[in-house]
Amino acid sequence: MSIEKTFVAIKPDGVQRGLVSEVISRFERKGLKLAGMKLMKVPVEMAENHYGEHKGKPFFEGLVKFITSGPIVAMVWEGKGAIATCRQVIGATNPANAATGSIRGDLALDIGRNLVHGSDGPESAAREIGIFFKENEIVSSWDRNNDCWITE
Length: 152
Ligand code: DAT
Ligand code: MG
Fold this sequence. Notes:
Elements (H helix, E strand, L loop, with lengths): L2 E8 L1 H5 L3 H11 L2 E8 L3 H7 L9 H8 L4 E9 L1 H9 L12 H5 L8 E3 L3 H11 L20
Antiparallel strand pairs: 1-3, 1-4, 2-3
The chain binds 2'-deoxyadenosine-5'-diphosphate and magnesium ion.
């Protein structure tokens, strides 16, 4: 398993509900390493680009409206197998099917208010990091003094 970077965002519902620290702590405690983070409002064009694969679906308009409705916390997390691991920490798309112990399983009820976004593969991770972050906003592979206790 290689060291990967993935894009994760706390959606407007997570910020509004005061769950920013709760969500961040779950990725931190897992052992992932924070490589970028900012609070921002997403412009409509950026939201449409980010969710481009869903254009034309019945929920697309509502999704763009929701994601642009308030600030999000955009993040890059790094670690061994980080892309799939973050998806597991986040849980299934519909909170009704998300495992207990996952963010959506523990903290959300509705598919349209599922708190967190995570890239679903290497291509989308690279694409989404590029949409939300400039190169100089990412701190790659910085030395963490407990790395040897997390990754062999
Ligand atoms: P995920 O966010 O788990 O990657 P996705 O990429 O399939 O899920 O969809 C993006 C978001 O769109 C998802 O987090 C919530 C919303 N969404 C997906 N399917 C939906 C549906 N059937 N009805 C309403 N919203 C939906
Ligand atoms: Mg997705």
